[in-house]
Specification:
By secondary structure, this protein is an alpha+beta fold. It is built from 13 helices and 20 strands.
Amino acid sequence: MQLLHPLVQRVMEIQPEMEAYSLSCPLVSSSPHQETSIHKTERLQVDLKEMQGKSVGLYFAANWYWKCETFTPVLHKVYHQLKEEGSGFEVVFVSSDEDQASFDRFHRSMPWLAVPFTDLRSRRYLTQRFQIEGIPSLVVLGPNGELVSTDGVELVCRYGARAFPFTSERIAELVEEERLKHSSQTLEMLLSIEGRDYVNNHGKNVKLSNLVGKTVGLYFSAQPCPPCVKFTAKLASVYANLREKNENFEVVFVSMDKNIDDYLQCFDSMPWLALPYDEEFSRALARYFDVQEIPTLVIIGPDGKTVTKEGRSLINLHSELAFPFTELQLRLLQEKQNEEAKAYPSSFDHVGHHHVLNLVSEKSGGGPYMCCECNEQGLGWAYQCLGCGYEIHLKCGREGEEESTGKK
């Protein structure tokens, strides 16, 4: 009978003199004031037979990368939940830190085991064995050492502890559950919790029933976040213009802030509604919509169904003309863009870039891009430098040309 993971056996072959592979383990103790308090890190000999029959997540990460700093608490919570449920899940940290001190500092924030920082050969072997090209990465192995998933980070972020045991069968079940939820989705179902049927309007409560029948943007944002600050100003302008036209449009802020003070500071700069601060509920909503970054604007239609998760891109591209964000409206805007593009020259010599820029469409080399002039998103029609990939909006090209002509 196979007692150890094939992977672990391979690591032990590298160091045959060791009967029990040495893993670094945080020493933890219970505290009446804190569920778990980490006092220090010690080197402990851990008999890997203790991991027999468990699923193991190999967590490739480093303290110097902000995405690892962000994901580690998420994994910590899932790990703790699975431990409480007795699910048979263990995590082993495989570090990419710069030095021992950085490793120790980062590992102290983790309740699980780690490959010792000094064991460079094993860390390299694991990284090469699973072809790790970016961090954070969570590779999940099954109880018999079989590779179950290399997408552990995405699965944990999207489904939390429900993703366990991370098999394709389990993920298929979760996808089907999501499909059924989305098909029967209503605005009240999305935003109400334990009898709370209202949103916050800067100190006043607004019943969710008042939003039914409107197009609603769920705005996932946080403080401090430079891209959020920039897009909030853009969205506020669009919001004001649509309200002035009496369009049935509302925005609800869904806070991704880590504390209520940041939430209040962030919300203070917004003219719309907000969910009351509830970090757990907001993150569950973010997982429901698979929010990968902030800011994100999810558009909910008058029937309570999701219209698009690309509200941010559409606002950046079309401003208030994107409303009501439906496929029909976007098709009309595309036709309008196609017509307007006929008035632009097929190429021009860009003064600032010192290269000739050519007019391209989505069908002739264009596509999603970030405008190199205004740093906003673009799609389809653009002026593009075929040599170096410099790409700008048509209007930015025209404004730049007019500006240079005026200076002359």
